[in-house]
Amino acid sequence: MSPLLSISGLRISFVQYTRGLRRRETVAVAGMDLAADRGQVVALVGASGAGKTLLAHAVLGMLPPNASESGVITYDGAVLTSEDRRRRAGHEIALLPQSVDFLDPLATIGRQVRRSAQLAGRPESYAVAALADRGLGSEVLRRYPHELSGGMIRRVLVTMATMGDPQLILADEPTPGLPQADVTAVLRDFRALADDGRAVVLITHELRGALEVADSVVICRDGRTIETAAPADFTGDGPDLPPYSRALWQALPGNGFRVEQPC
Amino acid sequence: MLSAEGLWFRYHKRAPWILEDLSLTIEPGERVGLCGPSGAGKSTIGRLLAGYRKPSRGAITSDGPVQLVMQHPERTMNPHWRIRDVLAEAGSTVDEALVEPHWLDRFPHELSGGELQRVNLARALLAEPRYVIADEISASLDAITQAQLWHHLVEYAEAHGVGVLAISHDQDLIAKVTQRTHRVE
Predict the structure, then answer these.
(1) Does A137 lie at the interface with B, CB-CB under 8 angstroms?
(2) In whole numbers, what is the pLDDT of chain A averaged over residues?
């Protein structure tokens, strides 16, 4: 059986016009493969600018109009056309966006959460209950985004992203800027969502956090996925890791801070 | 010595205080880590020490130039200038260990984030600073590029007696590259 989400040979480029009509093509994603099945957390790890966010936006049909894409994305065994993607986005497939700026700064949390419940076809009371499930009381409903801590905002975003009971969740850099306790809580949320039978793709540049919850780690670099590794192999000097993963592991400040390039 | 004494800072008269009575010193050749939760004012301290902003109260004194290196190099460069011109603002003898010669004719967006941060650091060091404030300079980089960048900065600082203030949320990194840590809450 094919996994819930399967991406192979994804390539994304942008066409730009500079100085009048001079056309220029920039390749942002040069070749990415990734598979995530129900019950799994798959971490996509790589530096900023490696194209991780674009992969998530492609799955949701959110790429800008000047992007061109090739490769195959399948969901539940069938190829996802651009209409499929837009139709499933927010229902079967959900994105947890990277930036807290995705919330409206001028609307209360209550209004935004009720709106997302409505879009997902749920009663408003469901929104309040869903927030309470994530440890946020009803007093949060009257507050504005800037009145919440980074950790609380993350929980609001997780609540909104899971409102439509998605089967596939793509979480884009959900932990930067959070205190360690909140990071752990957010990552455990993802583990629990996967354990309930969903597929979770965790996009991050923090290898250590990914290792705590992921079933497999896909490493990307310069727009390509180059290696897939098992979290258990990230131990000691990483003797069983593929070469670039091992170099990344050994370069962490806590693991020797070494800079040998594998290539 | 780079010294901050009794620094208070807020953006305007009715705004809340971001810094309250902060004091901090860095000796030449010394590397100090600055840690604390987000919103504690770490980047504000860096900006004040480098002279980007004036403290509301308190004094900063330094026995030499201070350079600030920030997390996002692309925001600190003119996007229409080639790397050669970006560096020429600070000096002419480019360190080839940091900047590869074939980058010089490119524009900032034609380099990767890691390459551009090396250019950014090279530019700061060309100005021959006595102190370098490194504000999350490797937070957007992969671990290998992070290690390269820091090895270079530490070697340079040791060779030239430059003081470094390393601002980062990564405790392991701070422990590795600095000799002592100053915590802010």
Answers:
(1) no
(2) 90
Of A93, A202, A206, A109, which Cα lies nearest the Cα of A152? A109
In percent, the amount of chain A with pLDDT more than 70 equals 97
Do B143 and A261 count as a contact with CB atoms less than 8 A apart?
Answer: no
Would the pLDDT of A263 be above 60?
no
DSSP per residue over B38-93, as a string? TTSSHHHHHHHHTTSS--SEEEEE-SS-EEEE-S-GGGGS-TTS-HHHHHHTT-S-
Picking from A48, A222, A249 by the largest number of B CB atoms within 10 A of its own CB, the best residue to mutate is A48
Long-range CB pairs of A213-216 (<8 Å, 24+ gap) are: A213/A41, A213/A43, A213/A187, A213/A188, A214/A41, A214/A42, A214/A43, A215/A40, A215/A41, A215/A42, A216/A40, A216/A42, A216/A43
Question: Contact, A220 vs A245, CB < 8 A?
Answer: no
A252 touches chain B (CB under 8 A): yes
* Residues 111 through 130 of chain B touching chain A, CB cutoff 8 Å: 112-114
Q: Is A183 helix (H, G, I), strand (E, B) or coil?
A: helix
pLDDT (average), residues B46-58: 96
Which residue has tokens 């009575």? B21
CATH number of A1-92+168-176+198-263: 3.40.50.300
Q: What is the DSSP string of A18-59?
A: ETTTEEEEEEEEEEEEEEE-TT-EEEEE--TTSSHHHHHHHH
pLDDT tens string A40-76: 999 999 877 778 989 999 999 999 888 999 999 999 9
Query: Is CATH 3.30.70.1450 correct for B2-77+124-183?
Result: no
Rg of the Cα atoms in chain A: 19
Whether residue A162 contacts residue A94, with contact meaning beta carbons closer than 8 Å, is answered with: yes
DSSP secondary structure letter of residue A224: E
**For chain B, which residues make up each domain, given as ranges?**
2-77+124-183
Angstrom distance (rounded) from CA A201 to CA A55: 11
